[in-house]
Specification:
The chain is mainly beta and about 290 residues long. The protein is built from two helices and 27 strands. A hairpin with a 2-residue loop joins strand 14 and strand 15. The chain starts with 11 loop residues before the first strand and ends with a helix.
Length: about 290
């Protein structure tokens, strides 16, 4: 469904569903400045934030968006950004504020705490906006993050790792000692109470009190995969070639490839009616009733 509105820029790097619509973030390009736009579900509102008029925002790319209360949080190439859309205010957390690296590779939220992964470690921003290191002994790249209880799950280039509480130790996740399961993890999501990890080729998951399992190859259809979002017993997964739906033990279903998707896919969001796809060629939405398997 092609929508009759204009975003500040065509390269949409992140999208996040909220009640009544979605927020979309576009990158800075030669033709446009970086910005955040709220798009109402009924297309009655398109409200953009583009930073101070004289300078704009101090970053170029946004690849992660999430909400915490009334605030919008963004993971950018120059820090973690907290936006207050109601007041039009923003605050940037960068290396001078305690981040090990300003390039944000992953972002998650739970119980008012923001957790961010960088190429050189992990940090938390608490509800008082103070920055704390997570697993201070870990200085590698955190490609993906999620939490459960006091456990932080970390996707790395060498597999899935965890750290518990304020421990400085980051260790391999239990049950992943065999070589076939020690593969890069680029995204994490929860499908009910099942933790699902995305590798460049397939899904890796574990239900409570069970062993880790690998699903069939998805990259045969989708190419190198990037992220995932849960939806009604399965997950939407994008790759270099497009987007498809997959269940834990299924191949790629109902793929949306070239012609359906106008560019490289960076992010996805699901609301009750639509799948929203952030791409290098704009923001696209699909009616879920029309594309679900």
């Amino acid at each position: 469904q092609r929508l009759p509105f204009v975003l500040p820029g065509n390269v949409v790097g992140a999208v996040y569903a909220v009640p009544g619509g979605v927020w979309a973030a576009n990158d800075r390009t030669a033709a446009s400045d970086v910005g955040f736009t709220f798009i109402a579900s009924d297309l009655s509102q398109f409200n953009a934030m583009q930073g101070p008029p004289a300078t704009g925002f101090p970053f170029t790319q946004v690849r992660h968006l999430l909400g915490q209360g009334a605030a919008l949080w963004a993971g950018t190439d120059h820090g973690v950004v907290r936006l207050d859309p109601a007041r039009g205010r923003d605050r940037v957390f960068a290396e001078g504020d305690g981040l090990p690296d300003s390039r944000i590779l992953a972002l998650s939220t739970r119980y008012g705490i923001i957790t961010a992964g960088t190429p050189r470690g992990i940090l938390r921003i608490d509800d008082s906006l103070r920055v704390h290191p997570v697993g201070p002994g870990f200085s590698g790249a955190a490609l993906a993050l999620t939490t459960s209880g006091d456990t932080t799950w970390i996707g790395t280039s060498e597999g899935l790792a965890i750290t518990v509480g304020d421990s400085s130790e980051v260790v391999r996740a239990p049950g992943l000692n065999t070589a076939s399961l020690q593969v890069p993890v680029v995204a994490l999501a929860w499908l009910a109470d099942t933790l699902v990890a995305l590798t460049p080729d397939q899904l890796l998951w574990r239900a409570p009190r069970s062993a880790w399992k690998l699903g069939p190859s998805l990259s045969v259809v989708l190419g190198r995969m990037r992220t995932l979002v849960a939806d009604r017993g399965g997950l939407w997964v994008p790759g270099d070639n497009g987007v498809a739906f997959a269940r834990l033990t299924s191949p790629a279903l109902r793929p949306l490839l070239a012609g359906d998707i106008p560019g490289d896919v960076f992010d996805l969001a699901v609301d009750p009616d639509y799948l929203w796809v952030a791409t290098s060629g704009g923001l696209v939405r699909f009616l879920l009733d029309a594309i679900r398997p």
